[in-house]
Amino acid sequence: MWAGGSGGMAGSFRAVYELARQLSKGFEVTLVFLKDGEPASTVPLDVDGFRTVECSIGRPPEAEFPGGFLDDYDLLHIWGASRAILHRSQSAGALPHCYSFHSSLEARGILSRLGSVFEPAVDRITVAGRGVGDYIASECHLPVEVIPLGVDTDRFRPMGKEDCRERLGIPDDAFVFGFLGRLWKFDFALTYRAFKRVKALSGRSDCVLVAAGQYDRLRMRGPCWLKDDFVVLPSYPHSLVPSILNSFDVLLNTSCGVREGFGLSVLEAMACAVPVVSVAWDGFKDTVANGETGRLVDTAWHSGEPWIRTSQLVDACTALLKQEALRVEMGRKARDVVAREFTWTLCGSRYARLFQAMTDGAAPSSGRGARRWYDVKTMERLGRSDALPGNVRRAVGNLTSSRRIGRGWERTVSDETIDFLPKYRLTRDSRREEYHEKLRREFPFLRQL
Fold first, then answer.
1. Are residues 146 and 130 in contact, defined by beta-carbon separation less than 8 angstroms?
2. Which pTM does this prediction carry?
3. What's the pLDDT tens digit per position in 54-63?
4. Which ranges of 171-280 does DSSP label H, i.e. alpha helix?
5. Which CATH number applies to 11-149+345-382: 3.10.20.90, 3.40.50.2000, 3.40.440.10, 3.40.50.300?
6. Is 221 exposed, middle or buried (0-12, 13-18, 19+ CB in 10 A)?
7. Exposed, middle or buried by CB within 10 Å (0-12, 13-18, 19+), for 136?
8. 151-182: per-residue pLDDT in tens?
9. φ, ψ for residue 103, nearest 5 deg
10. What CATH number labels 161-342+429-448?
11. Average model confidence (pLDDT) for the chain?
């Protein structure tokens, strides 16, 4: 069950699609796209490898599945649980449900609703990152399985850098630091300031910063040069993602999004043998081996929002810029790690074992969080929208004492942090406009768009 559209290939949907493709090798799989609409109905879709259905469930509060729709299934795998009550109320009590969460923030917002319908004897929760799993297990005492996502290493592989750059319009003689992901969680100003300091420290004038990803504020087809050394690629087909990653010399990931749960683009870059400099945020801490396959940069939670130790970020980027042998070695090790630990085949086999055990009535438990069931008041507290519980902060970031926030640290701000951090709840519109105006001052070209 995927509560999203049937188009596009954002990271979360790619995970749903690839896992369905892997599981179809041993199970009869139907990928169901849920959407609000009237009346409740289903429409078959044409996707190779497994059956897909677009399911209209009506509009809340009268939402419902079409009559008998769930009767043919032995197990429901639900990505996110915003309609958890609907799934359980219209299915047999013994039908196993597996709920998958992308991030701690998503889990926090849904657990209060999930608490009334979760059946610990037959249901399971899966997450891709250990931080999210630790939060759910320690705070809610629920059985959680941590199953990392994967990468298609045949598709994401080292390719000729010159050809990739020519295809994208990126100078072939430049040294490229690149970001790939949804740009609404990208801090343009902070990343560019750090990049300029790297150029100054290294004495290199041939460096270019590339940010690739969807961003509603940039409605352009081709490259958008915000500065003479900073280009944004706001629109591209998913087929170009391997070429984009292979055009980078270093993947520079500064995303501390509160909805960040795993970071598939970092893994895909590693599969392309691209060394990584990344914030030590949830998910990235699971995939990047600091000093081996890349460098991790300290983050902190201070005054209700994430901070980055940018001095450390600059040092890490400068070291990789100056040492070609180190970049090559880190890239080689990164691809080896992905091929060994993070393939879709491995992810699919782990889910297949879990689902087989769930349908057999003997789901294995990692032992995480099964100590007791939670009460309603606990779940109401976890579901509050005005504060992030301490364990959520510990899950989504590498917490550092506020006393260590000082010189060398910078607050990171993006559309995502403004939209989802509780501290901006009452001033969201004004803070968003203030943020966009700062971007327009920093990058005057944005005023033309």
1. yes
2. 0.86
3. 777 766 656 6
4. 188-202, 241-246, 264-271
5. 3.40.50.2000
6. exposed
7. buried
8. 999 999 999 999 999 988 899 999 999 999 98
9. -150, 165
10. 3.40.50.2000
11. 81
